[in-house]
Amino acid sequence: MTLSPWDIAIVIAYVVGVLALGFYLSKKSSKNLESYFLGGNELPWYYLGLSNASGMFDISGTMWSVGILFVYGLKSAWLPWLWPVWNQVFVFVYLAIWMRRSNVMTGAEWITFRFGDGKGAKLSHIIIVIFAVISVLGFIAYFFEGIGKYSTSILPWDVSFDFFGYQVSSARSYALIICGLTSLYTVKGGMHSVVATEVMQFVIMTFACFGVGIVAYNMVTAEQISAVVPETWDQLFFGWNLGLDWSNSAFPQVNNKIDSDGFDLFGILFMLMVLKGIFASVAGPVPSYDMQRILATKTPAEAAKMSFLTICVLYIPRYFMIIGFAVLSLVYLGPELQAMGDNIDFEQVLPMAINKFLPVGLKGLMLAGFLAAFMGTFAAFVNSAPAYIVNDIYKKYINPGAPDKKLVQLSIISSLALVMVGIAFGFNAGSLNSLILWLSSSLYGGYVAANVLKWIWWRFTGNGYFWGMFFGLIASTVKFIFFPDYVDIFVFPIIFAFAFTGCIIGTFLEPLPNRDQVKRFYKQTKPWGFWGPIKKEVMAEDTGFVPNMDFKRDSFNVVVGVIWQMAQVVIPIYFMLRKDTEMVIWSAVLILTSYLLKRFWWDRLERD
Length: 608
Prior knowledge:
Strand order of the largest sheet: 1-2
Distance between the termini: 54 Å
CATH architecture: Up-down Bundle
Order of helices and strands: HHHHHHHEEHHHHHHHHHHHHHHHHHHH
């Protein structure tokens, strides 16, 4: 890729600026653990919301989104439901409020708040710590490998070097430099530095997104797009089958991608995505940076507003850029993509488009923006995991009376250690990739069932939580080792059922322990669900207690919120394709759903 002096200057200015800001704010995080990991619960919710959005704006996810939009067209808007992307709606409607009421620092500490200190609760506490640390190590290795590949595709310099006979490639050299710079301000400044730099990074990324969209809109017409894509590519809705055939288009080899993904039976896929999505969303966020942002807010109401803002600012600019790169690639990158043969490397579509289409200045801003996206996500993970080591292991089991200064020092050391281990994994990605993938996917496979029940069932115990996670781990491992070719979403019901069985068996191995702690949790958190006996006891002990009766309202707001979020995804796509009627309809949907959320959710936050 060729870079002008202006583009290089923009990237350098960004790097210097983010480091300066991070170090400037570092003193605010040195007081105690709450200050280091949660910003002392004094950061404004809108800063945390922008920070959270920045953490979700990763390079690899953007490259994937450009690739699936290229292949599946408008139907790609449904594919992020695989995770599901709308779990954030459940979070802002009610889960953020429930979680913030706990007044804890980490997801593992929340487990103690929910189940107490019994044997089963301690086992659950330990397994969540393991889950959090392994997930972060896997993501650091994943980001290390990803930023190296991305950097070599966009930066023109050869920075490879020889280290005592070991040849370090340019990709790994770039990754070392970028991860090292990010770790500097993250480890030094804690949550204050992370949030401030992520806000700046998100602003840069947003300007870059709209810049790309404007370039694409002026370079590509609807007729040019129609000439190179299949007939149903610009249709959002689908039948039992995908109904997308590239055989007679400009890129017939794209059918290979659809076959390898296994998404042709789109009707079944959609039903399973909704089924998994509901359970995974009710389970709540995993113990990562998203949960950390929730726990860092000042009040439960601000936790909900923070999660709401994350969606508000993320989707329209991001998809304006994604559809921009996709249509530019479809129309103008034909020769380059055809030269790849039968299997197009869709990871190369994004950097190729940046190099070919963006003018001087915007190219530098785009590179700085993607560098910001990577650094923001990387920093969020690096800042979230050490809390589990220091707060949930060292402080809880080894030295409960440790002074704040020592705890902050150990947090810095833990952060550096995690970064170094994660980078070591990244250096050996070829040999360790399967191990990392197994650990992260297997642990997550057991996450859903136990974490649904912890919110909604009074009889559920720490023992049940541990065995539910353990059974899910076994089921996911069996799937990963013996049935690797099966698409994960198609076996989710089996893994969920197995994990649910573990939850039930573990729960009824003993009477309900820590009944007083369960009542304390219910009274402080006020969840809805199956809490009958506990609710009666709490109301008998406290006649002024008012139970949560908002299940129907929350369910309504979730449905409205999912439609509201979907509108933000498809509006930029319809705009770029010049499908004005559909764009106006979905804009009206966005306005209507915004009004409904304002009336039935936002206006009731402070009162509730």
